[in-house]
Structures are given as structure tokens and as C-alpha cells.
Amino acid sequence: MQVTEIVTTVFLALGCIISVTGAYGLLRMPDFYTRLHTAGKTDSLGQLLIFIGLVFVTPDLLTQLKLVMVALILMIAAPTATHAITKAAHLHDLRPWTKGDPGGEP
Amino acid sequence: MLQMMPALFLFLLLGAYWALLSGQFHNGFLLVVGLLCITFVVWMGQRMGLLDDEGVPVRFYPRAILYVPYLAWQVLLSNWDVFKRTWSSSLPIDPRMARIPYSTRHAFVTTTYANSITLTPGTVTVSVDDKTMLIHCLTQDGEDGLLEGDMERHVKRLEG
Q1: Does any domain span residue A36?
Q2: Which chain B residues touch A78 with a CB distance below 8 Å?
Q3: Structure confidence at residue A11 (pLDDT)
Q4: How many Cα atoms are found within 13 Å in the side-chain-facing hemisphere of A41?
Q5: Are the Cβ atoms of B124 and A82 closer than 8 angstroms?
Q6: Per the domain annotation, does A71 fall within a domain?
Q7: How far apart are CA A13 and CA A16, in angstroms?
Q8: Which chain A residue has the Cα nearest residue B21?
Q9: Which of B95, B119, B125 sits opposite A96 (nearest CB)?
Q10: Residue A46, domain extent
Q11: Model pLDDT, residue B106
Q12: Does residue A12 sit within a domain?
């Protein structure tokens, strides 16, 4: 097994763990706003780790640069989308869940 | 030609982007067509008045590269924090809305700050007005960290 394959496997595994955490948090969090926080984990770190992992097994330099480019664009687009969704909810007067409200405890 | 520098930089950026996505350096016809497309886009941008300091914020790019490592570290730290809270059996969260004052002047820097807040898990920028940002925080710690202003200090280095 080559070193690059080991590095890729580690990065992909970490990315998967982060993404699964994002999905699990999405199910577990009590309301709309808090769910976006865990969804943001997949946005920021999960996809970045997966893309970095893939760079190591790509032989072609141009494809490697494209992968990095996709990761960078997602790093800018994802928080912008998260902000837009949150702002839409806020403008519709969706009240955030706070500690002590029913329905939040696991 | 009023906005020569932004036009030139946009031309170079689009050229690099085209080269990255196509990789067709050996085909003369495609090179010429790519060049024509880029020129057309820059010309349209000029006509639409997009080539100003906000549309092509080139002067912030060198310092933005220095900002990326700090941001990456913050993303790692806050991911770890939310990771622990998500898998903890008691779900130790205390969500709240908070108003955070900000003092960045330029639109690009303010946008970078708001995006950085959203990018780090645990805090999401809901809305931005003239002097404050409305932030939804997952915990009290997240709010305190932003009020402390460490991230804002780093962002303000972009302004020089």
C-alpha cells in the first residue's frame, strides 16, 4: 500500500465522520436554527477533507487544481447559502428554540 | 476606459480560471475563442459598472491569503466543539440570538467577517445592519468568543 493511499484513506475517513456527525446533528437538534449549525459542519470541514483526500490519489495536476477549486468555491458558497436560509427564517419570524422549551430534549 | 486596473485584473483572473477549467493549451482555435469570451465578459462588466472596488476587490486578495490559515484553524476548533456537543448524550446546547457590533468599513471585509462567522460551526450570521450583526449562537461560549473580537481583529487586518 502506497503512502498516498494511506493519506487519502485517513482524509476520506475523517471527512465521512464529520459528514455523518452533520447528518446526525440534523436529526438530533431541537429546531431549525440549531440544525443549521450541524449542517454547517458538513459544509465547511467535511467536504474540504474529502476533496483534500481525493487530491492525493489524482495523478493529473490539472484535475488536482480543479478539485481544490471546487473545495474553495464551496467554502464561499456554503456559508452564503446558510446565511440566506437563516435570514429567510428570521424574516418569517420563526422563533428560535431556547433552553427549557419543550420538545428539545433527546 | 475609466477602470483600467480592475478590468486588467478581472481579465487575468478569468484567463487563469479558463485555463484551469479547460486545459486546452494546444488547440489554437479554442484559445482564441476563450480569449474572445473573456474579453466580452470584461467589456460587459465595464458597461454594467461592475468593475469597481466592490465588484473586483483585488487590493484585498494578498492579505486574504494570510487570513486563510487563521480561518482554517478556527473552523477546526469550532468543528471539534460542535462535534463533541452533537455526540454528547445530554446535548449541552443553549442556543441564543445575539447582537454583535462590528467596525469593519469596507463591504468586502464585512462580508468576509459575516461569512467567517457562518463558516465556523456554532455561530450563524442571520442579518447585518449598519452597526451590528444578528448572530444565532449554539452556546454562550460562541457568543462570548465573538464579543471578545478576536476574529474581528484578524479580519480587520484585511483593511490594512
Answers
A1: yes
A2: 119
A3: 94
A4: 30
A5: yes
A6: yes
A7: 5
A8: A66
A9: B95
A10: 3-91
A11: 85
A12: yes
pLDDT digits (tens, 9 = 90+) for B136-158: 888 888 888 888 888 888 888 88
pTM: predicted TM-score of the whole model, two decimal places: 0.82
Residue B81 with chain A: CB contacts under 8 Å: none
Question: Is A97 contained in some domain?
Answer: no
Grid coordinates standing for A48?
Answer: 474540504
Nearest-10 Cα torsion for B114, B120, B126, B131: -40
- pLDDT tens digits, A53-62: 999 998 888 8
> ipTM surpassing 0.85, yes or no?
no
- The residue of chain B with its CA nearest to that of A61 is B20
What residues of chain B lie within 8 A of the CB of A106, using their CB? Answer: 89-91
Q: Indicate the number of domains in chain A.
A: 1
Residues of chain B with pLDDT under 70: 1-3
Chain B residues with beta carbon closer than 8 angstroms to that of A34: 93, 95, 138
Find out whether A75 and A48 touch, Cβ atoms under 8 Å: yes
Element (H, E) at B112: helix B107-119
Chain A closest CA to B43's CA: distance in Å?
24
- What is the spatial distance between Cα A14 and Cα A10, in angstroms, rounded to a whole number? 6
- Give me the residue from A41, A65, A106 closest to B121, CB to CB: A41
pLDDT above 90 for A17: yes
Return the pLDDT at A64: 92
